Amino acid sequence: MKILFKYFKNYRVRAILAPLFKMLEASFELLVPLVMAAIIDKGIKNGDKPYIMKMGLLMIVLGVVGFGCSVMAQYFSARTAMAVGKELRYDLFAHIENLSFSEIDEIGSSTLITRMTSDVNQIQTGVNMFLRLFLRSPFIVFGAVFMALLVDRKAGFIVLCILPILCVIVFSIMFYSIPLYKKVQDRTDTVLMKTRENLSGARVIRAFSQEGAEMEEFERATNILTEGQLFVGRISAFLNPLTYAVINLGIAAVIWKGAKQVDLGLLAQGGVYALVNYLSQILIELIKLANLIIIETKAIACLKRVEAVFETKSSQKYRGEDTNEKESADAFADLRSFDVRQALGNPKLVFEHAGLTYKHGAEPALVDVNLTVFPGETVGIIGGTGSGKSTLVNLIPRFYDCTEGRVLLDGMDVKEYGKEELRKKIGIVPQKAVLFSGTIAENLRLGNAEATDEELYHALERAQAMELIREKQGGLSHRLNIGAKNLSGGQRQRMTIARALAKNPEVLILDDSASALDFATEAKLKAAIRELADKMTVFIVSQRITSIMHADKIVVLDDGAVCGIGSHSHLLKNCAVYQEIYDSQIQEDEESWVANS
What we know:
It contains 23 helices and twelve strands. The protein has helices spanning 2-5, 12-46, 49-98, 101-107, 109-133, 136-151, 153-200, 202-207, 211-237, 239-263, 269-311, 323-344, 389-394, 419-425, 440-444, 453-462, 466-471, 489-502, 519-530, 545-548, 568-574, 576-584, 587-596; strands at residues 349-356, 366-373, 378-383, 404-409, 412-413, 426-429, 438-439, 479-480, 507-511, 537-541, 553-558, 561-566.
């Protein structure tokens, strides 16, 4: 709960005014039965029309003022809740952006989406209802009991006796349903996960005719969610009939007792009316309070889920911006750079016994990788599916940290760099071409916000994407829709390559980023990248030998371990795994690649 209180700091006045206006509204509401009782006892009984008109006008005034207070209370509570929700959602998004891939993988993207949308919305609703009703409902309940005792002690005592019975019913149902609502929220995560998987993998599902199986799986998940919601709903459904039964019995008792008091001349008829009204107010407010507590229970459960994300800290620490710390790190960098460069001859990247085991992974994904890469070299990385190719290059920008050994960039451990400093040196083209809604220029400038149009055109030309710009109306200003679905797979890949090149990185990582390109386009792309050898070191991850055969150095991975490093000809003679990959691929691919290069 502490995490929520800090968001009220900027909205203290609104947060105080909302319940204050609600209390004023409740005060006016408690006065209405007394005014009506006076009309009955003095106006109607005596046929005093002026008195009836006067008191009727007073009731209208009380209603209008109460309505105005209610509107103001809802305005301030809604504004506060929306503002708190906005800041909470922003901070949660910023926190998730700073988590490492390990934490995101562990929590799950579908769960994070639920917590940032559905859970925050539930928290907003909880804040809104809390400010509106948390003080108002108890005030009216106890106020109605107090007013009933003022009207007539004996009849009011019946109201006082009914109150604890109602409280037992309301809170018993509430406490039994609280844990069930948490389970329902967890099941919502499962439904969202299945929805996300089906939407993102729609093409694969259709390609393998698995629509029926996926529909059954989704139906199973939604049925479990529905059953949970119905079960807790049935329990909550007992609230209204039980409370109404108790209240109606109470009303009958009040009328019976009140009638005796009226016969004895100890209570006026208007007093009986007032007592019945106060009982009705108690009933309504207790039901509101019960619903409020259920809403707050959901909100607290959601808040705990959000807090769990905030409490999840990134396992990666970057060098801070403190001057002394920076100077210390720079001194360490200079020393490390001197040692490594003296020993290895000025390398760009060094993997020293690098290994990685994913969190909760049974087996290591990488084992004892030793690799030295010099400036301007092109390094090809090849291996079977699941051999650790992407995992290896993900260690360079610290998407994941080595669990064993280390990775050195320019002679310094990548863990010693500041985040911006490290990422500025590296350009990445991931396996899946990810583009965002917006113009082509906006997508290309993600890595280099200061890039000029000329630099963007230059990057597009090297990425063999200039034809795309000529085809699209508006050129760089052409808008891409969500996920750039208005581009083909090959066009998206070339755009992501151009985005990385526009950054002018020192290290360029192409993670199987040419899989959708034809041989001719891929050959032109590789030729354009080779021209940049004096400016950048290039890593090419691929499953096609034709994509990496002309690299200066080829790393062959098998089940997370390096089983060969060398040139194409060297590996053909000395690496059985490489020979097997070569033999399994159509040699015409190589001939076609060579013919077009």
